[in-house]
């Protein structure tokens, strides 16, 4: 299913609409192979497969800890992941602090989620202003440039750079101002930060990822992969 152009018919006036993507777990994923290599630098040998097996439970733990008012329990996620992969408990606190300190320089979220960057490029080609809107550490633009996907987006809005975190509606308002739009659709994996935040700002939202479940809210759609997102956007943008 293709995404319609936003070019209006002659004489038609439409409010500019932007589409924003969360970064982690929406455009880029935790790169478990990269994490295994980083741990090896500290003398800790762990297989990517062991990290992958531990990841679902670690994310469930993370979801239980997310504060609806903002913030993301990065250390708790990582500690749970390392423990689930079989790393000795006494090693974990120091490893987590080292990984956190290294995060601005060597961000662990760098694996592209299939199809999402291509979708962002398709939207831009159709005349839709497209941005990344993420709670991050302040160097997201540099990371996306490093992994060669920054050019897919008109703007990269990083909470660590502007000092406002989702779900605060001010970061959504800021995104509209930067993208030159009057309304927005936000795509993200976190209900408290992404979906509740977008709804609070008057946006529509697409709850993305394998952990997303159907909800009885007409302004929210659920998508498990890029094709699902494309289908929702094709329907909404055609309205």
Describe the structure.
The protein is an alpha/beta fold. It folds into two domains: 17-28 and 110-238, HAD superfamily/HAD-like (Rossmann fold); 32-107, DNA polymerase, domain 1, CATH 1.10.150. It is 44% helix and 15% strand. The protein is built from ten helices and eight strands. The protein has helices spanning 32-41, 48-65, 74-84, 92-102, 116-125, 140-146, 159-162, 169-179, 191-200, 226-238; strands at residues 17-21, 28-30, 109-112, 130-134, 155-158, 183-188, 204-208, 220-223. The strands form two sheets. A six-stranded parallel β-sheet has the order 5-4-1-6-7-8, with helices on both faces. Helix 1 packs across helix 2 (48-65) and helix 2 runs antiparallel to helix 3 (74-84). The longest helix has 18 residues, at 48-65. Residues 8-13 have low confidence and may be disordered.
List the defining traits of the structure above.
239 residues; 10 helices; two-stranded antiparallel sheet; Rossmann fold; DNA polymerase, domain 1; 2 domains; alpha/beta
Topology (elements, then pairings):
Elements: E1 17-21, E2 28-30, H1 32-41, H2 48-65, H3 74-84, H4 92-102, E3 109-112, H5 116-125, E4 130-134, H6 140-146, E5 155-158, H7 159-162, H8 169-179, E6 183-188, H9 191-200, E7 204-208, E8 220-223, H10 226-238
Parallel strand pairs: 1-4, 1-6, 4-5, 6-7, 7-8
Antiparallel strand pairs: 2-3
Helix pairs in contact: 1-2, 2-3, 3-4
